[in-house]
């Protein structure tokens, strides 16, 4: 299969049914829904519409997207819309990129308690930043934070961490423990487990991004709607193996870019461990950017910074998702909408021939 056309959907369609049968009883409802959505994305099963160029009559079929947040194909348009919505909130100040990574021991518990531990990761990392910034010994001010949750490493391993752009559950009985961690259900055992971890240094990465605020936001938009693996990283697959590109962050320079081959079953398993619990928001805003007061805070900040409103400033208008005609660049218009599982009346067609008369 040609690399340029290889997608996660191809792997799921080709090997997903056998994988689900082999793992029956161990696939969650959310994981099943994600697989089903990705398999059907932009196929006749979801319906679609037929578009035709106003200028050259080129006609093509556009199948509907699944819009699942774990689908590699659906997140590009969502990222563009998110970027348009956030541009109006930019301030003319330096922005910093900060990453909080869960210690490995806590990450193992997080894998079994995603909703609880991922939520705590958001809250604890944000509270840390807000508290430090409010301390007069540091900044002595209230800051704004946009946080994005990622749960994967480049090799699709479980690696929960929160990306930020910055201008106590055990007692409540909310954690569950399985396998080698069963003994942690005992309060004393859990306390003993946490004791050395309180002294351990968490991995916190911080840097000042290059460019101005717009460049920072564009940088973050690549993180907000990223999924466990992009289709562009896939190289080849068959019934036994999947090969993809990955980056070894322990190595500097060009040698960090490598290829990895996994058994197809293992590739699917690794992809699905990053399916988030239903209702868990993976993009959150804190401090000045908290949604309830964000607009007022931004307006006040602009006032204090004496920022003059720029003509043509972004307003968060919807992004036009219809690309121009690939033949002549003309405007594509919808000429038919067809329902799920049906066949459109109009079929793809080549552009109309243009008769040119030489009157010289």
Explain the overall architecture.
By secondary structure, this protein is α+β, with helices and mostly antiparallel strands. 32% of the residues lie in helices and 19% in strands. The strands form three sheets. A five-stranded antiparallel beta sheet has the order 6-3-5-4-10, sandwiched between helices. The termini are far apart.
Keywords for this structure?
5-stranded antiparallel beta sheet; 9 helices; 11 strands; globular; 360 residues; alpha+beta; single chain
**Alpha-beta content class:** alpha+beta
Mean pLDDT: 84
What is the approximate shape? globular
* SS summary, helix count: 9
Q: What is the share of helical residues? A: 25-40%
Sheet with most strands = 5 strands, antiparallel
Strands side by side in the biggest sheet: 6-3-5-4-10
Which residue ranges are poorly predicted, with pLDDT under 50 across at least 5 consecutive positions? 354-360
Tally the beta strands.
11
- One letter per element, helices H and strands E, the order comes to HHEEHEHHEEHEHEEEHEHE
- Note the quaternary state here: single chain
Distance between the termini: 51 Å
**In percent terms, what proportion of residues is strand?**
15-25%
Radius of gyration: 24 Å
Please outline what is shown here.
This protein has helices at 8-22, 29-40, 75-87, 104-112, 114-134, 187-199, 213-224, 264-272, 294-304; strands spanning 48-53, 59-63, 96-101, 144-152, 158-166, 203-207, 234-237, 241-247, 257-263, 283-287, 332-338. With 360 residues, it is of the alpha+beta class. A hairpin with a 5-residue loop joins strand 4 (144-152) and strand 5 (158-166).
């Amino acid at each position: 299969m040609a690399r340029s056309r290889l997608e996660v959907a191809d792997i799921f369609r080709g090997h997903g049914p056998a994988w689900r049968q082999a793992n029956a009883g161990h696939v969650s409802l959310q994981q099943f829904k994600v697989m089903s959505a990705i398999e059907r994305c932009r196929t006749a099963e979801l319906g679609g519409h037929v578009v035709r160029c106003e200028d050259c009559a080129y006609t093509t079929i556009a199948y509907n997207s699944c819009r699942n947040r774990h689908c590699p194909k659906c997140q590009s348009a969502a990222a563009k819309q998110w970027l348009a919505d956030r541009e109006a909130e930019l301030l003319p100040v330096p922005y910093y990129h900060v990453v909080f990574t869960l210690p490995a021991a806590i990450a193992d518990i997080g894998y079994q308690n995603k909703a609880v531990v991922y939520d705590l990761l958001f809250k604890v990392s944000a509270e840390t930043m807000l508290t430090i910034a409010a301390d007069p010994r540091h900044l002595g001010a209230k800051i704004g934070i946009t946080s994005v949750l990622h749960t994967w490493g480049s090799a699709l391993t479980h690696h929960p961490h929160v990306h930020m752009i910055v201008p106590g559950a055990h007692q409540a009985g909310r954690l569950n423990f399985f396998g080698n961690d069963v003994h942690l259900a005992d309060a004393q055992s859990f306390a003993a487990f946490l004791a050395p971890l309180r002294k351990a240094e968490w991995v916190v990465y911080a840097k000042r991004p290059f460019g101005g605020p717009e460049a920072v936001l564009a940088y973050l938009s690549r993180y907000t709607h990223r999924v466990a693996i992009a289709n562009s990283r896939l190289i080849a697959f068959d019934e036994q193996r999947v090969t993809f590109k990955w980056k070894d962050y322990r190595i500097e320079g060009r040698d960090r870019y490598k290829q990895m081959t996994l058994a197809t079953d293992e590739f699917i398993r690794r992809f699905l461990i990053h399916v988030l619990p239903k209702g868990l928001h993976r993009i959150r805003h804190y401090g000045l950017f908290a949604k309830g007061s964000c607009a007022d805070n931004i307006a006040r900040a602009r006032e204090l910074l004496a920022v003059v409103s720029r003509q043509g400033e972004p307003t968060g208008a919807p992004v036009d998702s219809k690309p121009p005609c690939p033949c002549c660049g003309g405007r594509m218009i919808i000429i038919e909408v067809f329902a799920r599982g049906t066949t459109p009346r109009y079929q793809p067609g080549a552009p109309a021939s243009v008769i040119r008369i030489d009157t010289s």
